[in-house]
Amino acid sequence: MTDRTGAPATIGVDVAPRTRSSQTVAADAAEGRRARRRAPRRSAAAWDPSVRERSALDRLRAQEAVRDPELLPLRYARMAHSSWTYLRGAAAVMAADLAAAPHSGLMVQMCGDAHVLNFGLWASPERQLLFDARDFDETLPGPFEWDLKRLATSIHVLADAEGLTTGCGEDGAAAAVEGYRTAMRRYSRMGELDVWYDRIPSDVPLRGLASEFAEATLRAIEKRSRRRTHHGTARQLVADDHGRRHIVLDPMKRIDDGLSHGERMRAYEQVYDTYLASIPPHLHRLVARFRRVDSVRQIVGVGSVGMRVWLHLLEGDSGRQPVFSQAKQATASVYEEFLGPSGFPNHGERVVVGQRLMQSASDIFLGHMRVDDHDYYVRQFRDMKIIPTGAQIAGFLPQFGAACGHALAKSHARSGDPEAVVGYMGKGPAFAEGILGYARAYAAQNRTDHADLRDAIEAGVVEAADRGW
């Protein structure tokens, strides 16, 4: 079974297939070099919009069927705001464009949406802050270079949106590619367990900066992480109404589902057993110590607007431990049209397994469920997660880009063959020139697509409105 480029398609469970004919490092490297014939490295720079089988707008509208129709105008309003917000919401468009050209066939567990702000800080179960990929809604086994192309493109788009010079975008994208290459070469020389145990500490994105700036930033990160614990979140989002605690969200982040408190309680109880079946048995006792106090529906992000998202406030038997649990709808990855369907019957499980494959340390509460024919994955809300903004990283974009490249290489090395990827990339400039050329060209295409969306909104073809949210 092959995809449209002639490379092996993914079948069975969502684990990147091994294409090595031998277990030796030499054979892996040779496989990588052979992959250059399938997808010459410098030719990766080519982008021709005439290869599109459907317009960008048609790709976006094709996703409407799986989203809450009430939120579609908000989705388009947010995407129309800037070329950056457009890129974040247009993963399906870029997936189709990436699939239109030959690829290496060197398969890894892709993030699927590896833009520069989908990397950030997480708390490990040991409460250590780590730097890693953070969004896996589109995760699927696929060619390693597709993630890297989206990362490099996103740096150009973000730099433009933040009003930085063209050189800043160039430097940031180049640093991301070099960070990936350097890290992947290191992983190719490591043993399997060493790759899986490797972690990226929180100071990595700040290395190479003036010490006083780095130290001040680290102090700010530590302070912010303490505010984003469950206790800190409870102080921000929980109110007490005559003895009943409930979640209070900004109207821009909440939608009225029309359900009473009792109806929400029954809905939560109906999915409880489904969720328990998806987590390791030893965690059942821990989960059983928490009871649901309140639930609301959330409006989140840009790319996820329209997806059904529930936020649950749980409280431990001790009365001293609030926990916020988020259940987010999962649909087919935008890459499945081109790489074959996921091997999992539940897209929430696809996301959870992909996250565990890519991250060094993941949320212990990760699980999945199906409710009313919709798939969901479950995770803790916030829990010391630090998600940067474009403005926050604009002053050190190359350093941050390099850290993202490092994190992406680590994730790919866990599921793919590092020696084969290194063999494909080679030692010369051909690989980097191909990726960076594509990033420049596709950032320009993204600006055009964003303008087309704005024109469609202005002409009344697409409805865009915030409706007070």
UniProtKB/TrEMBL annotation:
Source organism, top-level taxon: Bacteria
InterPro entries associated with the record: DUF2252
Segments for region (Disordered): 1-50
Protein name from the UniProt record: DUF2252 domain-containing protein
